[in-house]
Design brief:
- It is a single chain.
- By secondary structure, this protein is of the alpha+beta class.
- Helices cover 37% and strands 11% of the residues.
- The chain has seven helices and two strands; from the N terminus they run H-H-E-E-H-H-H-H-H.
- A two-stranded antiparallel sheet has the order 1-2.
- A hairpin with a 2-residue loop joins strand 1 and strand 2.
- Helix 1 runs antiparallel to helix 2.
- The N and C termini lie far apart (39 Å).
């Protein structure tokens, strides 16, 4: 498995954990908490792959951490010891690339268009005036992390 596929699997694992937060169809008495998967189990399974060195993850519901886990080692080939249970990882600007990859996948599946506007995709954002220029911001802008701000020379590039 190549690095891009491993990164994609790690992202998919995070999405699956996030998307796994669902409430029951009919609430049973005392069942006011959402159900979710076991983060430690998911990360242990992910780190069992020979392409993954280690993994750190947490599940948040309504801004509160409800589960967390770590698996694998700190360095290649199992060196550096296990990742401590209280370890943290600052994802930083990696989220921009992750968003761009997901957008490209959705465009490839014809679920989004590169020039689709935010106001068309999320009408409530425009109706409630939650984002300035929602009629101008496109999927392309989001993929480039521009937020609607044109790059110098963008008009010439599009010709």
């Amino acid at each position: 498995m190549n690095r891009a596929k491993a990164v994609g699997l790690a992202g998919l694992a995070c999405v699956m954990l996030t998307m796994g937060v669902t409430g029951p169809a009919t609430a049973a008495p005392g069942a006011d908490r959402p159900r979710f998967g076991d983060v430690q189990e998911a990360l242990t399974e992910l780190a069992a792959s020979s392409e993954v060195v280690g993994a750190i993850g947490a599940l948040y519901v309504d801004g509160r951490r409800v589960d967390k886990g770590t698996a694998g080692s700190r360095l290649l080939n199992g060196e550096g010891g296990k990742i401590p249970a209280d370890a943290g990882y600052r994802v930083g600007s990696q989220t921009k690339q992750m968003v761009a990859i997901v957008l490209l996948q959705l465009i490839g599946e014809n679920k989004l268009g590169i020039d689709d506007k935010l106001s068309d995709l999320l009408p409530e954002v425009a109706e409630q005036d939650l984002v300035e220029r929602a009629d101008d911001i496109t999927v392309r802008h989001r993929g480039l992390a521009q937020g609607g701000q044109a790059l110098a020379g963008e008009a010439e590039y599009r010709r």
